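Dear support,

I submitted the protein below through the web form. The confirmation email said the job was done, but the results page showed an empty box. After a refresh the structure appeared. I'm attaching both so you can tell me whether what I see now is the final result or a partial one.
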Amino acid sequence: MAARALWKGSISFGLVNIPVALFKAVRDVRPRFRMLHAHDRSPVRFERVCIRDGRALAWEDLVKGYEYERGRFVVLTEDDFKAAAIEKTRTIDIVDFVNAGQVDDRFFETPYYVVPAQGAERAWGLLREAIRGSGRIGIAKFILREAQHLCAVEAIGEAMVLSVMRFADELVDASPFERPAVEGLRPREVEMAKALVDSLTAEWNPGKYTDRYRENLMKIIKAKARGRRATLTPDAEPRQAEVVDLMERLRRSLAQGGHSRRPPKRRPAKTHGRKRRHAA
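What the results page shows now:
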């Protein structure tokens, strides 16, 4: 079955307007569960109950409130939300093109594919190549699901990708978590740590990283559905959390697997698109 567009409109920069559609670029593959009654395994229905009088409420009995102090609320009506809403448009309006390497990875959220509408392929292709050749990404705003979003438009491979972004005030200040001056580091320790990083260097291959927990859970689910018991491969011996001797741990890490892999030759970084996001 062909993928269905979740948004249709146009992407604009300057006086150029290109009809496009957005398609999901990621999918949720985690298993979903429902709450069941343990006695007879019937699905459970959750009700909306008033905390004060304990009565179950219908949807028409509910209003939206903002808690400005503990236990004190301001009620907002549909007219309030309409008054706050900006003009609804179907346009991804690029307002700036910025250096790809200047954008912090923490700003990025969900990616979508930007696909040209019929007849707009040439204009779409020109924009993609212009973005690719410039080494910049377009910063835009658009409305999705009744809310305005900041987003980035970039060329990745042969695709054009729009990534929903966080606004600046959504990021938590990092200064309380920074440790700018770590004392007591010896040059020899730093060199051994670098050697360990080099020994573990590999080419990026996203397919090699899998969710073992989800795989095991699905094996258990499928086995139980057939009335059987799942056979799971045990994990490797867990690593100890405490640090007894940092130098000794580095030596042991290098001896166990570090030197068995030679670091690949360094390749020059590609200039198109922004810097790649950190792999968790």
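Response: this is the final, complete result; the empty box was a page-load delay. The first strand starts at residue 7 and ends at 13.
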